[in-house]
Amino acid sequence: MTVENKTIIISGASRGIGRATAMLLAEHGANVVVTARNADELNQLEKEATEGHTRGKIVAVPGDVTSESDMEAVVKTALDQFKHIDVVINNAGYGIFKNVDELTVSEWDDLMATNVKGTFILTKAALPSLKTQGSGHIVVVASDVAKRTFAGGSLYTASKYAQEAFTGALRKEVRSFGIKVTGVYSGLVDSNFHAKGHGHETSKSWLQNEDMAESMLFIISRPAHVVIDEFMVHPLSQEY
To answer: Which residues form a coiled coil (predicted)?
Structure first.
């Protein structure tokens, strides 16, 4: 029940849940390869881990999850530096909240590319190594709206429903290879994801990025014979 010396890839790690998770796992001794489009923020994260003398390392590999070559480079870096991959956390994603007739086709395509295709691309890049070693853990950070809908959320909820379907099918495909798959379904999180930004008065009772990081640590540090198929978490203040 430890992540010490495990190699973990996290997408969308430049801020929010991804960033908090990377720092917590490095503090617990994991070697974390982080990726996101914002190179400056990623490099700052790597610098903070180095200067903070975390037990594990953080290695920044800027990239776009919608690019197959970028995600293959992330996986290659993990294997070159640490020889194996233990966990892949698909965390990259964003939201657009508009009525259907207000959405543009480009908004639909761009969000689906990041939230859904990005999950597929990074997972696909890592799978050959995980299958060969006969172990591993793939985590997909979706949302509780993978299981419900709301007005103005057609695009975002569609992407999260798609992530849930992908996760469920993947779980059935890879279990026989000794690979675990976990879908994470969170409620409201006080992060920059929301329009009013992190730390706003209206979100003070929500889950914090650190709460989600602790959840990730719990999920991936279970004994080898235990898999958490689904993990749903909400702030007490949120009705569900």
So the answer is: none
- pLDDT tens per residue, range 81-132: 999 999 999 999 999 999 999 999 999 999 999 999 999 999 999 999 999 9
Range of the domain at 179: 7-233
CATH label of the domain that carries residue 114 = 3.40.50.720
Closest-CA residue to 32 (of 86, 109, 68, 70): 86
Which residues are catalytic, by number? 156
Is 136 exposed, middle or buried (CB count within 10 Å of its CB: 0-12, 13-18, 19+)? buried
Domain count, the chain: 1
Mean pLDDT value across residues 55-62: 98
Task: State the pTM of this model.
Answer: 0.95
- Residue 148 inside a domain? The answer is yes
Share above pLDDT 70 across residues of the chain, in percent, rounded to a whole number: 97
DSSP character string of 34-91:
EE-S-HHHHHHHHHHHHHTT-SS-EEE----TT-HHHHHHHHHHHHHHHS---EEEE-
**Beta carbons of 121 and 71 less than 8 angstroms apart:** yes
